[in-house]
Specification:
heterodimer; A: 222 residues; mainly alpha; MetI-like fold; 81% helix; B: 325 residues; 2 domains; 10 helices; 66% helix; disordered N terminus
Chain lengths: 222, 325
């Protein structure tokens, strides 16, 4: 217990990094996932094929592999650089991996949401002469996104847990910090683990509650 | 889903979409103008895609990643037999051992959560909820360090990975089992109780046989997640397939990018095979008459917010995966 109190600054910093990783990757995954979903329902077979291929490849690849590829492949070999600071660079590389992975799941959630929009909405939009992009942007996506708030919340919770995998390329988020503390305080493994587990619950439970509330509030009443 | 209109005159046959063309409610059947525009856009997209591929390839070339020496090891049998296959074997055996323990774990805790006795129901529920909420990697770390610090055991990476996988996936499977049993119509167990079966008999003879059919696809889908999650072992130096691609091969041939790409293809092929099994089982259980229950949505997922007959996206799965690793 004493170890938790002594190291509370380190622990809070690690969780602050976890939160930043989650928010940055979540935002980028939402943007990329929406674009992918639009591609997958577009009139152009090429775009549909690219979107489908992306989703099927990424969903069947382990996230650890994606992150290792970003860190070692992109970072070390190809010299993709976002910052002169090495740790900031790995942070950005792991954000790229996390958002590229999560985008595939966001895409599938939004596509499921598009499925919940009644046919009449899209037909009416076409009847008044809207193009595909106008139809999607003004009529279908706004309704689709409202209906997938709860699934997107679950994806965000999964992403929060998945940020721990950034430890594979040495990003000092919660799980790597926990491991470091295990090594430093071999006699306090159990309290440290409970501390980190509770802290994770503190992150994910309110997210779940918030998104459940949001999904009820934003639901389209039909 | 077709774009038939309500106007009196049926469309002339030549304006109907050719069967190869997909019909969507999101856009009109392309006329001559739209077809021209689509062709132009298709060419543009292809050009942009080709340019992206070119940019990637030239970047790889610039860093000498296309040298034959980096790729030819994958054409050698001994590289596969000595370096890659042992890793694949470790991945598969960890996944198999974890699956064999996690499935009974899931059944026990799933059924326990439905118990009438609160002293069984509440602890089982707590275990399931807690292990689902904690990141798998943290559990693996906890088993590795906790095992030696608390019990004085030497925990191998294999044990740590399998234990973590069992606790996490077992808890997810428990939720699948619970919703599978709950998806059997109430009349089934009421009828069974009415003819004098005991609670255990109702579960064993009436509910479980029907529930298993309904949740089989979801269980297999979860096993794909389990297989993917074995890659976490890489972080604790478990010598799995990812370890072969990201540590063993690069240390021999200095070819991290080719190695990780080839290993990714191996993972994708294995997962597609298991995923195809899940799809096949789902189709089978959907038309099965052995169960009164509806198929359970894959459970690392959210129940599809499905209103049937919506703006069609064909081939939608029963649920939406969340990418929970």
């Amino acid at each position: 217990m004493q170890a938790l109190i002594d190291e509370h600054r380190v622990i809070l910093e690690a969780f602050w990094l976890t939160i930043r990783l989650t928010l940055a990757s979540g935002f980028m995954a939402l943007v990329l996932g929406t674009i992918l979903a639009a591609m997958r329902v577009s009139p152009l077979p090429v775009l549909r094929a690219i979107g489908t291929a992306y989703v099927n490849i990424v969903r069947n690849t382990p996230l650890t592999l994606v992150i290792v590829f970003c860190g070692l492949g992109l970072g070390l070999v190809l010299d993709v650089s976002f910052s002169t600071s090495l740790s900031t660079n790995y942070l950005w590389l792991s954000i790229i991996g996390l958002s590229a992975y999560t985008a595939a799941f966001v895409c599938e959630a939004i596509r499921a949401g598009i499925n919940t929009v009644p046919v009449g909405q899209a037909e009416a939009a076409r009847a008044i002469g809207l193009t595909f992009m106008q139809n999607l942007r003004l009529i279908v996506l706004p309704q689709a996104l409202r209906s997938v708030v709860a699934p997107l919340g679950n994806i965000l919770i999964a992403l929060t847990k998945n940020t721990t995998i950034a430890a594979a390329i040495g990003v000092g988020e919660a799980s790597l910090t926990m491991k470091t503390l295990f090594e430093a305080h071999g006699d306090a493994v159990v309290p440290i683990f409970f501390g980190f587990a509770v802290a994770f619950l503190v992150l994910t439970l309110p997210t779940g509650l918030l998104f459940t509330w949001l999904s009820k509030r934003l639901a389209v009443i039909r | 889903m077709t774009s038939t209109t309500l106007t009196a005159e049926p469309k002339p046959a030549r304006e109907r979409p050719r069967s190869a063309e997909r019909v969507s409610v999101l856009y009109d059947v392309p006329g001559p103008k739209a077809r021209l525009r689509n062709t132009v856009l298709t060419v543009l997209v292809v050009l942009v895609a080709l340019f992206a591929v070119y940019a990637m390839v030239s970047k790889l070339d610039e860093k000498n990643q296309l040298d034959a020496a980096l790729w030819t090891p994958f054409l050698r049998g001994d590289v596969w037999v000595n370096l890659i296959l042992p890793g694949l074997l470790n991945t598969l055996s960890a996944a198999l051992v974890a699956a064999v323990i996690a499935v009974p774990f899931g059944f026990v805790f799933g059924i326990a959560r439905l118990s009438e006795h609160s002293w069984i129901r509440v602890p089982a529920g707590a275990v399931v909820e807690v292990f689902r909420a904690i990141p798998l990697l943290m559990m693996i770390f906890a088993v590795m360090y906790g095992g030696s610090a608390v019990f004085g055991l030497t925990v191998t990476p294999f044990t740590a990975v399998v234990t973590g996988l069992v606790l996490y996936n077992g808890s997810v499977l428990a939720e699948i089992v619970r919703s599978g049993i709950q998806s059997v119509p109430r009349g089934q167990s009421e009828a069974a109780l009415a003819i004098g079966l005991r609670k255990g008999q109702v579960m064993r003879m009436i509910l479980l046989p029907q529930a298993v059919t309904a949740m089989m696809p979801a269980i297999v889908a979860q096993l794909v997640v389990l297989l993917k999650d074995t890659a976490l072992g890489f972080i604790v130096s478990f010598e799995d397939l990812l370890n072969a691609g990201a540590r063993v091969l690069p240390s021999n041939f200095n070819n991290i990018i080719p190695a990780v790409m080839v290993i990714a293809v191996v993972y994708i092929i294995i997962n597609l095979i298991v995923g195809a099994l899940a799809t096949w089982l789902e189709r089978r259980s959907r038309r099965s008459r052995r169960t009164a229950a509806r198929p359970v949505a894959p459970a690392d997922s959210v129940a599809a917010p499905g209103a049937p007959g919506g703006v069609a996206a064909p081939g939608m799965p029963g649920g939406v995966a969340t990418g929970d690793d």
